[in-house]
Each structure stands twice: as C-alpha cells, then as structure tokens.
Amino acid sequence: MTETASRPTLEAVAARAGVSRATASRVVNGGDGVREPLVERVRRAVEELGYVPNQAARSLVTRRHDAVAVVIAEPETRVFADPFFGLQLRGISKELTAHDSQLVLLLTEGRDDHARVGRYLAGGHVDGALVFSLHLDDPLPELIHGAGVPTVFGGRPDWGDGARRAVYVDSDNRGGAREAVRHLVGLGRTRVAHITGALDQTSAVDRLDGFRDVMGDADPRLVVEGDFTPAGGEHAMRELLERCPDVDAVFAANDLTASGALRVLRERGRRVPDDVAVIGFDDMLPVAEQTDPPLTTVRQDIEEMGRLMARLLLRDLDRRAGKQGADGGPAGVVLPTTLVRRVSA
C-alpha cells in the first residue's frame, strides 16, 4: 500500500465525527456556520486520524494559500548581517505560525529582482505581502500595487503625492530621537553631532528631524550621513572628527552605526563617555550590550513590530474573506520608544 493510499481522507474524518462531508470540509477549511459542538467533534477526529488537508484542494475552496510573502528591499549580505532583520522576521514568523500560515522570504539584490518579486506576487502564490526596508526610489510599492495583493509595510512609506493609503507599522523615530538628544544636552554636552542613517529611508529622515527638533541651530558640520552599518558609522565618525574635533556627543541613527563610531573613538584615544557620549537607536541586545562600553540607546520593539505587521495583514485577509468579527484595523500603527541608559551616555 502506498503512502498516499494510506492517508486518512476527509470522508473518514466525517465518518469518525458523525457529520456530513460538507460539514467536515467547512470546519477543516476554516468556514463559518458550523455549531461549536460539531466543530469540536471534527477537530477531534482530525487529530485522532492524523488527517492532513490537501492544500491544493483547500485553496480551491477557501481561495487562500496560507502563505505570506515577506519582502525585504535589501541584498542578502545586508539582511543576514544585521540583527534587526532577524528580530523582525522572528516576530512575523511567530504570528504566522500561530495562524498556520507559511512565510515565504523574498530578497531584492537589484532591479532585476524587483521585477521577479512583482511577477511572483502577481502569480497568485501567496495571500498577501509584508514589506520593509523600502527606499524612497524603490519601484516595489508600484509593482506590489499592480499585483493587487493585500500588503502591510514595515516603516512609514513616503509616496510623495499622498494619494495612496498604506497600512504600516512603525516606531516613533522622531520622538525617540528627540529623547536621545535631550538626554545628551541634559548631560551638559554642547557639541552634539548626529550620524544619520540612509536618508532615502523615512526612518532615517524622521530621526534626523528629531535631532533638529532639539538642536535646530546646531553647526551643520555636526550632521554626517551614514547608512545604518558599522562601516558607515566608522567612516562618518572619522569625517566628523576631522570636521569638528571638539565634538563631545554623538547620536547615531542605529546601534550598528554607533558600534562603528565607538571603534573609531577608541582608536583616536577619545574616552566614552568622558570625552564623547554616544547614543544609538534600536536596543538590539547582541549589539548594545556587547559594545565597549555598553551602549545607551533608544529601544524600539522590533520583534513586536514584525508580529503586529503579520497580525494586521491576517486581519485584513479575514475581513476580505467576510469572516465574522474581522475588521480592517488602523491604516498606520506607531509604537512608542524608550531610552535605555547604559554606560556610553
């Protein structure tokens, strides 16, 4: 007897539960309109028999694939080197797993990959998409819009024209930046610098705006552009010390940038925090607790951001399927940030 022939069928589940095949099918495929006692009998029969639904047949009934694309608009070298992406993916994966849905990871190395991702999403392989780390000139939003798949964005999109509605999850980047810079000023620092993130991303722009909210009349030489990487932080810190040798505090756009800045300060014999206080952003523990000295930083709940992105998408999919109690949820969710004090500031 083959493995296929030995698998329990939906008819066997219906017989074990004492219900019709149609009732068993509605329960297995997540349909409504079945009384709770019957639902429990079918679920018990599924468990006892070890029944596994045929996904292709189930998709025909439910028009759902139980799969969600996670699109990260970065090359794989960046994704696998930056713990931020791992934390966000962990939150997404936990939420999708809890709802018996699969995660399909799609990365973009270049323009050819954007077209590939667009074709994949338009091909009906997934129920929706979670997209993050967008850049302002990125063609992905237009491709995804053309594919017609429900989408939730990680980070506030900037469409420019403001015509499109986007569902997104973000952190209070501007408010967190203000809190960090106010802390540095409160320490008595007068030459406070900022190493930005990549300024084609809204999170970096918002953090720069938060810096300027507090230091509006600061010397423009105290702002140096980085790219959210340790190497970018090193390069920017060297440039900053050449421009302004008397700098006494640095707010870095993320923890990785701060780690690069700390290395350069140590190389140049600047004591942290005595000579230069340093604050990062993210509070990624593998980074913030292992820098020398441990990093004062702005905490955003990265894993919760991922979990909430997935939750909003699944809720939208249920709403589109007409499930009872499902609503579309808010268009944008902004999570709070908190300053975590360690040794560096």
What percentage of residues falls in helices of 4 or more residues?
40-55%
Cα radius of gyration in angstroms: 25 Å
Cα shape: elongated
Q: Count all strands and give the number.
A: 12
Summarize model confidence as the mean pLDDT: 87
* Model regions low in confidence, pLDDT < 50 over at least 5 residues: 1-5
Give the count of helical stretches.
15
Order of helices and strands: HHHHHEHHEHEHEEHEHEHEHEHEHEE
Amino- and carboxy-terminal Cα gap: 70 Å
List keywords for this structure.
345 residues; alpha/beta; disordered N terminus; 6-stranded parallel beta sheet; elongated; 46% helix
Q: How would you sum up this structure, described in words?
A:
By secondary structure, the chain is α/β, with parallel strands linked by helices. The protein is 46% helix and 15% strand. The chain has 15 helices and 12 strands. It has helices at 3-6, 10-17, 21-28, 36-49, 55-62, 76-79, 83-98, 111-122, 140-147, 173-186, 202-214, 230-243, 255-267, 285-288, 302-320; strands spanning 67-72, 102-107, 128-132, 151-154, 168-171, 192-195, 223-224, 249-252, 277-282, 296-299, 332-335, 338-340. The protein has a 6-stranded parallel β-sheet with strand order 2-1-3-4-5-11, with helices on both faces. Helix 2 packs across helix 4 (36-49), helix 7 packs parallel to helix 15 (302-320) and helix 8 (111-122) packs parallel to helix 9 (140-147). The longest helix has 19 residues, at 302-320. The protein is elongated and about 80 Å long. The termini are far apart.
